[in-house]
Amino acid sequence: HTQIVLCRDLNDGEELERSLRDIVARQPHALSVAIVPVGLTRFRQDCYPLNSFDKESAARVVEQVEAYQRQQREKDGRTFIYLADEFYLLAGRELPPAEYYDGFPQLDNGIGLARNFMEEFAAAVAEADDSKAALAAHKQQDNRDNRAKLRLAVVSGTSISPLMAELAESISGAGEQVTMVPVPNHHFGTTVNVSGLLTAKDMLAALQDVAGKVDGILIPESALRTGDNVFLDDVSLSDFCARLPCRVETVGSGREYFHALTDWENYSGVGDTAASYMWQSNAAYTKRGGM
Fold this sequence. Notes:
The chain is an alpha/beta fold. The chain has two domains: 2-111, no CATH class; 115-266. The chain is built from nine helices and seven strands; from the N terminus they run βαβαβαααβαβαβαβα. It has helices spanning 14-24, 55-76, 85-91, 113-127, 131-144, 161-170, 200-206, 237-242, 254-262, and strands at residues 2-6, 33-37, 81-83, 151-157, 177-183, 216-220, 247-251. It has a four-stranded parallel β-sheet. It has a three-stranded parallel β-sheet with strand order 1-2-3. Strand 4, helix 6 (161-170) and strand 5 (177-183) form a beta-alpha-beta unit. Helix 2 (55-76) packs across helix 3 and helix 4 crosses helix 9 (254-262). The longest helix is centred in the first third of the chain and has 22 residues, at 55-76. It starts with a strand and ends in a 29-residue tail after the last helix.
């Protein structure tokens, strides 16, 4: 399984064409190709100048790679070449269907995380016992008890926030009032937009005007380190929760997101158990003249 870290104006365009031809020619020894955008943090100093992808340049990459994907699927029914979610989200393009990821062989590299999350969410909806009727009954019970609607805040990286909002809106009949909290990453730099690299400090800052107006807060489990439930800025999950005036739970999958939104009273995140951490970065630190 191979990976190309794509740097705008360096190894994209014609150079990407050459790279893809070379790796495709090495099948079946090459099992897959992941293409991810280089991650640029604010800590890069005295390094080779690199530019982030924007909507237009990301769209060019998607169109270029889609041509290869079609060829590969016509050849043997597999996509073989997979683009990181960031390219689709940045370009404003629809994510490929689940079958295009061929079982998600590059999931640990962040390839297909969004689509996999959506599939898990859809599966949870399908598995719910007569979910529409159950949600309607829940709402009626709330009305009978004359209770205010449950208010939840959903914290995430800026790139995935619109998708999280879309999924929440699809089950709005549950009665929750969901507020999306996309968190700018001031620790690493705002060009880093994934949930897995958010710090406690940045999340707390984004929640400052929201926390007192909601009944519960959902945060991404991927922002925690494995086993000790500590954020990247060394704040523990328990300390983070203590700084907020309402209940806080983690979400690690689409299935958990569905249950948190529809059954908040009974939902529980990682708690004292180990978080399933996934590093989501391809930060470039190479200096001029070598390593």
